[in-house]
Amino acid sequence: MTPQPSVGLIVTSQPLEVGAEKAPQILRRAEAALSEMGLAVRATALVSDDPTTLAAAAKLRKADPDALVVVAATWSEDHRLLDLLEETPVPVIAWALPGIHTGSFCGCLQFASVLAEVGRPCRYVYGELDDPEAASRARSYGAACHVARALRRARVGLIGHRTPGMTEVACDELALKEELGPRVVQIEAADLMRASEGVEDAEAAEVWRRAATGGAAGPADVQVDPAEGVASAAVYIAMRRFVEQHRLSALATGCYPDLMGRVCLAHSLLAEEGVPCACEGDVNSALAMLVLQWLSGRPVHNTDPLAVDEEEDTIVGSHCGSGGFSIIAGAPTFGPVRLAGSGLCCLGPAAAGPITMLNLVGRAGTYRAAGFEGEALQTGMVFPGNPIKVKTPAPVRQVLYSAAEAAAGHHWMIGYGHHQETIQHWCRLVGLPYTDLGAG
Fold it and tell me: Parallel, antiparallel, or unpaired: how do β-strands 368-377 and 301-309 relate?
């Protein structure tokens, strides 16, 4: 569900400098440290002269990593790094080691300066290889590099069309591809429903039987006719086949109003399989959900912000009921969709825990992101769907004002865990303006 960022690892040294002889030992320690922090090390090399630079370049081309970690054993010549990046043009994590005689930390400052001059993204890290703060900086940047790169290959399916009257969520497909990476795959809603009608009853009934167990939290409270469950399961099977056929990473479904209560179970089940699904045909939100699901390794809440409590500094958000089972507090309830009073939704309040909110809106030249880190608190069924109550990091009125000033829109995606630093790195890598709504 959560792809692992990959890196190439280079340890540089200058033979005349103090500490050059320790480069092989540093390479072994650095490879172990990077693996320990969750980065997949695809290639390693020592670089100190022209022959070792050429050999390292060949390794990096073959490994094709998301980023390049450069640990300076000593002060080193910066042109060798430039040569490597001509062969593998990826972002750099320049890791400087403490020590007064080696020149490592000033050498990495030199790397960062030169890379800035030639327009190469770089993250400077200072500390021992087992330093927690240094590891956190490297890990968050590596994850952002992976997200930026993986999105270039991603495909987002759009089933049907955006909700009429909701111009805000209109998708600029060419700008999305050019600026952020994903390609949109159009799927007609009629094709989905025809495909669902062709699903064998026995296959759909088995999916519904498994869904009704409710997952790890226990059996679901089923408040709909079982026939609704079987029909919803058939839609899931059809949607899953489209995901496989088109190699989709995420989906946006034009559910309101015609498909309300008909695709919700499919969204819940696909989320548990690592395929986030946005409502109301909002492709941009599907992309935001995908980023959060990759970073958190869990399904993501698709919400409208609905109410605030200024005494608690909380916001309650929800949508009709298409959240993954694992992000609901307790066993889910299967009931009819709100407003229409028909179909089937996965109902239940959100699980508590640290969260990151992310909003993505815009078109060519105006794409922008906004968000904050907060805490999901325990709440009841204050709204028919998957209500989530979030404690904001700043006074809630200020958060709302900041959201309006940033023109953040009304679809707020909420993933578990604190990931804002990585998201900010991703935004810088792709040139996407980001507003921290919790900054006050």
Answer: unpaired
Give the bridge partners for 316, in sequence order.
307, 389
Is the torsion defined by CA of 401, 403, 405, 409 positive or negative? negative
Please answer whether residues 358 and 369 qualify as being in contact, where contact means their C-beta atoms are separated by less than 8 angstroms: yes
What's the sign of the alpha-carbon dihedral 361, 363, 366, 367?
A: positive
Q: What is the pLDDT of residue 2?
A: 64
Q: How many CB atoms lie within 10 A of CB 149?
A: 20
Distance CA 379, CA 258 (A): 30
Q: Which of 224, 235, 201 is nearest to 340 (CA)?
A: 224
With a CB cutoff of 8 Å and minimum separation 6, the contacts of 165 are none
Element spanning 29, H or E: helix 23-36
| Statement to judge: residues 278 and 346 lie in one domain | yes
Q: Examine the domain organization and report whether 199 and 236 are in the same domain.
A: yes
**What parts of the chain have a pLDDT lower than 50?**
none
The answer on 180 and 310 residing in a single domain is yes
Q: Report how far residue 166's alpha carbon sits from residue 168's, in angstroms, rounded to the nearest whole number.
A: 5
56-74 as b/e: b if 16+ CB within 10 A: bbebbeebebbbbbbbbbb
Q: Report the C-alpha gap between 156 and 128 in whole angstroms.
A: 41
**In 79-235, where do the E strands start and end?**
92-96, 122-126, 155-159, 183-187, 221-222
Q: Which two tokens stand for residue 366?
A: 């105006």
Cα pseudo-dihedral 378, 384, 386, 392, rounded to 10: -50
Q: Which of 111, 131, 151 is the last residue of a domain?
A: 151
Query: Which pLDDT does position 174 carry in this prediction?
Result: 97
Alpha helices in 180-277 (DSSP H): 189-197, 201-212, 226-246, 264-272
Alpha helices in 374-440 (DSSP H): 396-405, 420-430
Residues across the chain: 440
Rounded Cα distance, 13 and 22, in Å: 9
